[in-house]
Amino acid sequence: MSLLLNVDSLRKVYGQTKNEQTAVLEDVSFSLQRGEIVGLIGASGAGKSTVGRILASLEQQNAGTIWFDGSNLTGLTGKKRRVFAKDIQMIFQDPYDSLSSRMRISDLVEEPLLIQKSEKDLAKRRARVVEALELVSLDPKKYAMRYPHELSGGERQRIGVARALVCRPKLIVCDEPTSMLDASLRLELIQLLKKLNRKFGIAYLFITHDIALTKGFCSRLLVLYEGRIVDQGETDMVIEQPEHPFTIRMIKALKSLEHKKGELL
Ligand SMILES: Nc1ncnc2c1ncn2[C@@H]1O[C@H](COP(=O)(O)OP(=O)(O)OP(=O)(O)O)[C@@H](O)[C@H]1O
């Protein structure tokens, strides 16, 4: 494995005026190897999505550096940033919200290529759309001309994955992509992500509240608390031998919840 991403001392402040300003991320540092699947966990509002959105160029940090694939992304704008934007894609929690209801599936999957300006040739763009749909096991002949409301929740989430894949990314930030799906669809999506990881070596930063799901899927876990990564390590180690008091509390609470539901961690 070799280094794909290194995030150093990331800081993000929300709010316009000084009185309103709060630092969501104080000092976030972590790294990811090529093809690695790493879980990012933490309490609600801890800033997990903010980390993901910054990596996917949907927001800018106030301070800190991001090295990706050997290049420093910090401060890059316009065309220079776009070169890397296609390499870091994001899939979202809510398949119902993340797709425009007025666009056909083929246009939705083509859209990232137009935004990134990464494939100018129309025929090649269409071929990439077909390839992406096939990769997520949706028959292009059957699905390309449909609208999102004509798809099931699981199929819509697959369209989200196809939109990320069409850019041929090296890293996908998965922002709680399974939380709106029932147990069997959750498993299907995880199997699909595993297949794509093995086939293309795509790395994932997998944001989740579902710690049981990270077992057997994420090789490492990062724990975000009060704007910092307070615990990190191999998934089983973090779950079985957490070090930081917050992680100990969180794992204990989740274990008792899972125990009540009969799904032992
Ligand atoms: N655009 C914004 N403007 C102001 N505050 C924001 C903005 N986006 C997020 N926040 C705040 O930043 C904090 C972190 O939000 P974020 O969505 O990153 O957390 P999270 O850990 O992903 O939460 P959850 O697990 O509930 O999805 C929250 O308090 C949120 O209200």
Supply the key terms.
four-stranded antiparallel β-sheet; alpha/beta; binds adenosine-5'-triphosphate; Rossmann fold; 10 strands; 265 residues; 10 helices
Molecular structure report:
- This protein has a single domain (3-214), classed as Rossmann fold (3-Layer(aba) Sandwich), CATH 3.40.50.300.
- The protein has 10 helices and 10 strands.
- The protein has helices at residues 48-55, 78-85, 105-116, 122-135, 140-143, 153-165, 183-200, 211-214, 235-240, 245-261; strands spanning 3-14, 22-33, 37-42, 63-68, 71-72, 88-91, 171-175, 203-207, 220-225, 228-234.
- The strands form 2 sheets. It has a 6-stranded mixed sheet, sandwiched between helices.
- The site of adenosine-5'-triphosphate has 10 residues, from helix 1.
- Adenosine-5'-triphosphate is lined by residues 14, 24, 42, 44-50.
- This is ABC transporter ATP-binding protein.
- One of its GO terms (biological process) is transmembrane transport.
- Pfam families: ABC_tran.
Please give the radius of gyration in angstroms: 19 Å
What is the count of β-strands?
10
Bin the helical content. 25-40%
Strand content: 15-25%
Name given to the CATH architecture: 3-Layer(aba) Sandwich
Poorly predicted regions: none
User: Quick check: average pLDDT?
Assistant: 91
Give a quick account of the main beta sheet: strands, pairing sense, barrel closure. Answer: 6 strands, mixed
- Termini Cα gap: 28 Å
Sequence of secondary-structure elements: EEEHEEHEHHHHEHEHEEHH
- Reported by name, the CATH topology is Rossmann fold
Give the CA-based shape: globular
**CATH-wise, what's the superfamily?**
P-loop containing nucleotide triphosphate hydrolases
Query: Which cofactor or ligand species appear?
Result: adenosine-5'-triphosphate
